[in-house]
């Protein structure tokens, strides 16, 4: 899961820095796009630390938007197949989490003393 999360952020960076436009636009998008993805994940998606953790259909919607956005960024910045493979990787991960854990929510790591 962590590598998929990093993949979304990397895809946003690559998309921003390779988009058409001037240097200022590319640098701005290359920095701001991943920051927006990180902010969204920190607020709603991070396993143990989300400010507003989502469950059920809201969690599904969040992951579709977040990982779908990362896949779209990869597909736009590189080849379409890269985005498709990235999205397919998330789908496999999501199915395994549902089968093994009973849902999409990632169980937080136990803290010291538990």
Automatic annotation (TrEMBL):
The family database entries (InterPro entries) matched by this protein are listed as: DUF2568
Enumerate the Pfam families for this protein: DUF2568
Q: Where are the transmembrane segments?
A: 23-44
Instruction: Report the domain of life of the source organism.
Output: Bacteria
**Keywords, alphabetical:** Membrane, Transmembrane, Transmembrane helix
UniProt-recorded name of the protein: DUF2568 domain-containing protein
């Amino acid at each position: 899961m962590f590598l998929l999360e990093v993949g979304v952020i990397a895809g946003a960076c690559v998309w921003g820095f390779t988009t058409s436009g001037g240097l200022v636009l590319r640098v701005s998008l290359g920095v701001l796009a991943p920051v927006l993805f990180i902010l969204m994940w920190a607020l709603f998606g991070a396993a143990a630390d989300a400010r507003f953790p989502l469950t059920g259909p809201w969690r599904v919607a969040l992951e579709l938007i977040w990982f779908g956005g990362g896949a779209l960024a990869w597909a736009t910045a590189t080849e379409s197949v890269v985005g498709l493979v990235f999205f397919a990787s998330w789908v496999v991960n999501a199915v395994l989490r549902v089968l093994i854990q009973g849902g999409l929510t990632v169980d937080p790591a136990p803290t010291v003393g538990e």
